[in-house]
Predict the structure.
Amino acid sequence: MAHPLLVKAISAAKVKTDARDSTTLAWLLAAGLIPAVWVLPPHVRDLRMLLAHRQRLIRQRTQTQNRLHSVLPAHQVLPPAEHSSFATSQRAWWESLPFSALERLRVQQDLLLLDRLDPLVAELDAQLVQLSMTELWASQTPFLIQLPGTGVINALTLLAAIGDIIRFPVAKKLVGYSGLGAGVHASGQTYQTGRITKQGRCELRTTMIEAAWVVVEHHLHWKAQFERLTHSIGNRKAAVAIARKLLVAVWHVLTKQAADCHADPVRVAGTFLRWTHQKRPATSPRLEPRAFVRQMLDQVGVGAEVERFSYGAKLMCYHPPRS
């Protein structure tokens, strides 16, 4: 299987027929000039399909919510500030608005569509959480969840996009695969770098940028890095730079199967506890939460000294304490 963009760049011609293309491809193959791409194993392909389906449902839900919001300005109505406009408790509020008959029909159908989409997304989320604890993914998922700004869905998105981390011998290759690397024009005495290439897995790039905006708000190390970069390149470019650094951290923890060097053991323990509390099918095997957290901490290799941590308003303790 060949990389279509690179083959197109090599074999572009003004005269294009099937016979000429076949001959050109044969010449390129004989010369070793056809760049190959990685062929997905079945379990990675299935995970990508599931995540793509979830993204389509979320996109459809967002479009429906935007359509509902677009009706309000024409009637000079503001959505309720204290609750979500689309919560079930707000159905009476939508019914009380002065819509015309046709507008009311459209609003009712959009609300009904939302009611059907939410359970579908929740079902997919539960299936993804269950997949994260299966043998195929359980050996890698904890190393990504320990990273700040990365939940279960994001971890699986990264794993689906990356596939086998071994095919990236250095972190720079993974950065280039994500499209977060800077474009370069070097010729003679000229050396210029430009915007990021955006060539690669778009979901990998999007997930890392979303994680970057989270960590610069809630993680001291990354917040300090972001503030230092902001003074010279601005907020948006600084967020992209943080996303690139986070992706390098992803490469290191997956390749070395080790803890993040900036990991806070107490925070990581709370993250693992949220993982085990997420919705899963009733048939999914479930460890006692404290035992599950300790097992994940030991697998990642962090928090050996942690015997208690806060989770919301609760104080979680291990019994018996580790020796």
